[in-house]
Amino acid sequence: MFRKILIANRGEIALRVIQACREMGIPTVAVYSTADRDSLHVTYADEDVCIGPPASGQSYLNITSLVSAAEITGADAVHPGYGFLAENAQFAEVLADCRLAWIGPPPEVIRLMGDKARARQTAAAAGVPVLPGSGEPLASSDEARKVAAEVGFPVILKAAAGGGGRGMRIVRADADVQKAFDTAAHEADKAFGDGSIYLEKYLEEPRHIEFQVFGDAHGHVIHLGERECSIQRRHQKIIEEAPSPALTPELRQRMGAASVRLCEQVGYQNAGTIEYLLDRDGSFYFMEMNTRIQVEHPVTEMVTGVDLVKLQIAVAAGERLTVRSGLAPRGHAIECRINAEDPRTFAPSPGRLTTFHVPGGPGVRVDTHAYEDYVIPPHYDSLVGKLIAHGRDRAEAIARMERALEFFVIEGIRTTIPLHREILRDPVYRSGRLSTRFMEGFQARREKAAEVE
Ligand code: MV4
Known about the structure:
Strand content: 15-25%
Oligomer: single chain
Number of helices: 15
Low-confidence stretches: none
Strand order of the largest sheet: 13-12-9-10-11-14-19-17
Helix content: 25-40%
Bound molecules: ligand MV4
Radius of gyration: 22 Å
Number of strands: 20
Shape: globular
Distance between the termini: 61 Å
Largest sheet: 8 strands, antiparallel
Mean pLDDT: 97
């Protein structure tokens, strides 16, 4: 096992990794920017190293500073968390060159899945369904028109180097393909230094379902079921749950088997997530793969009883997976992301938490690095914490989430708690008939209700 782990991250996920290390008896090193001196991840780590100024490019993304911090403290492994350098193949390679263990998948696999067009082709080759579209990136707008005519409108143009919704264009008619292709390629080139674009048939109102996978260093791969992530706004997830209200045991088994096949095909190791679009008729299609632990991992932990972060550390140290694949989910779990944002306009709301009362009680979990008097810095994402509720079924999880949201008191900044309370009361949410367009419909219902007042 590792002697000492450096956590190349901040906020709640850095604290989450420290919790796992403490349970495993592994000493920890926190790194922090000058904006994060007072964060709990610094307080609870055994050692801490300041790695630079607030701007993440000079701190949490600074590979040289991170490697120096590991060398100075004698750490022998690095956990990247999510975001920042978690899917940076070059960082994983530099660590290997410095004889530091990387708690994540092999760099070649990170690189492969980071190219969304190659990832799609790899999925198809593994027998995982993909939507009709272009195999290779498109050479020209004329080729885009040709493929669009073959698959039929509407189509979606995606940047191979993008992901998470960046650089996408929906096109509904042949007359619009050329302009959409040219602007998408130009934007992708500016944003990612790679203008490669591929095309797929566009699904109008799918669910976003993702599967948790794990591979060990001995060629063994498992899946731990799905998360329903349809409730999102501008490609930021707001609420996630496990299991999905849409999956039958039979569909779970088929999607899980497809996920495992893809991982076996690429020699996947460590934690990963395979994202799918699920159509109303029960057809599912590969969308992309995330080669990291995700923000919403706790809902899977609640319904499987598996500590995913401890499992990441164990398999990175060469231990075999002993957890069984495809276990039936135990009960139901929901996660609400509590952001420092205005609950109506979503404008950022950093600042001091003058009151911070965290709920507890049966089936309630809070993952946060915050505390009363903590100041949310303006330099990073707006996540204050994650509220997770577990129950024997979806109705009990909802009831627990509603009372936990009611008992969660944060003053001094605006948060998304009131938004979550509204969503949990919403009849469409309660029915479980979710899709990626849920938030549009919810906002419309909300505005209508506000007019009546
Ligand atoms: C799609 C799609 C419909 N059809 N691809 C958005 C994020 C990126 N990973 C891909 N995305 C989508 N790809 C086809 N062929 C709809 C989306 C999409 C979406 C997906 C998941 C969650 C929310 C979404 C919101 C809008 C669009």
